[in-house]
Amino acid sequence: MKKSISSIFKEGILTNNPTFVQLLGMCPTLATTTSVVNALGMGAAVIVVLSFSNLFISLLRKIIPKQVRIASYIVIISGFVTAVELLIKAYFPAINKALGLFIPLIVVNCIILARAESFASKNGPIESFLDGIATGIGFTLALTCIAFVRELIGTGALFAAADGSGSIRILGDWYKPATIFLMPTGAFLTLGCLIALVQKIQYTSEDHARRRRIELDAINGGFHETLMRDPVTGKIVRRPALVEGPAEAIPAEPEESAASEEKAEDKPAEEKPSDEKPAEIQPAEEKPAEDKPAEEKGGETE
Q1: What's the first-to-final CA gap in the chain, in angstroms?
Q2: Comparing C-alpha atoms, which of 242, 210, 18 is closest to residue 111?
Q3: What distance in Å separates the CA atoms of residue 146 and residue 191, rounded to the nearest whole number?
Q4: What proportion of the chain, given as a percentage, has pLDDT over 70?
Q5: At a CB cut-off of 8 Å and minimum separation 6, what does 252 contact?
Q6: In 3D, which of 109, 98, 148 has the Cα closest to residue 132?
Q7: For 120-175, what is each residue's pLDDT tens digit?
Q8: φ and ψ at 138, to 5 degrees?
Q9: pLDDT, tens digit, for every residue of 183-207?
């Protein structure tokens, strides 16, 4: 399946970066990133070797037997590595001295062998050549980022030559260089922090893309609360505001009403406290005893 040029470069540089995502080529990554100049020199050598080895392997993919394909890949890669090493020795002796053994070790660099096996042996020459350039650029950017942090913190300057001269002072005299970043320990620390940062950025971007897809699905399906797709223009517009009217009474369902009536019958009627004050009981007035007539008194004595 053929890939577009944009997807090839996006994968090689960002989403499938050989250093920060695939964690390939750790040996030159940690050893040659003491300065930005050394990182750029190593990255340029890898770009040349990777792109042309991919091109030739793609052209010969139908001729090379499967049983000896890895050995054939190494022979092709070693030819380009030898040519690049001779050019660096002739025109950039300081970089050759700084990089040293790591230029010949490009032959067995797992990045180059991985792209030759997974891409160049299965795709056409143009796509393979572009894939080599994209992967090499991704590798160079990773080396440059690591070297930028290590050189700046370790020396307070940038862009020093391979022999250590001609650097540009970035931090003032007040800064005390942390020389640990120029050692292997600083290389591991810088690499780990940058890998964590890249993974966080990728996770955030993927999460935003997932949320965007969900939102678009809701808009296209008509389930979004505030947005909709205009049926005439096809653009995403805001839903018109609904006119608020008097709230209509919603009749209760028969089952719920019957259940509520049964509950009401089961509950005893609560007596409401009356507002009337109880009538005050007034004490009865004692009437004075009346004198009975004398006749009655006499009869009673008899």
Answers
A1: 146
A2: 18
A3: 7
A4: 78
A5: 260
A6: 109
A7: 998 899 999 999 999 999 999 999 999 999 999 988 888 888 777 777 888 878 88
A8: -60, -40
A9: 999 999 999 999 999 999 988 988 8
User: Longest Cα pair distance anywhere in the chain, in angstroms?
Assistant: 169
State both tokens at 193.
Answer: 């922090």
- What the block records as the tokens of 292 is 């009975």
| Strands (DSSP E) found in the chain | 157-158, 168-169, 227-229, 236-238
Each residue of 213-268: pLDDT tens digit?
888 888 787 777 788 787 778 788 887 765 444 444 445 455 555 555 555 555 55
**Nearest residue to 59 via CA among 5, 3, 125, 138:** 125
Per-residue pLDDT, 249: 45
What does the alpha-carbon distance between residue 198 and residue 19 come to, in Å, rounded to a whole number? 11
Task: Average the pLDDT over 66-94 and give the result.
Answer: 92
Is 208 buried (19+), middle (13-18) or exposed (0-12) by CB count in 10 A? Answer: exposed
Q: Given this model, what pLDDT does residue 262 score?
A: 53
According to the 3-state scheme, what is the secondary structure of 78-144?
HHHHHHHHHHHHHHCHHHHHHHHHHCHHHHHCHHHHHHHHHHHCCCCHHHHHHHHHHHHHHHHHHHH
SS3 158: strand
Q: Which two tokens stand for residue 260?
A: 């509520």
On whether the CB atoms of residues 145 and 39 are closer than 8 A, the answer is no
Counted residue by residue, the chain has a size of: 302
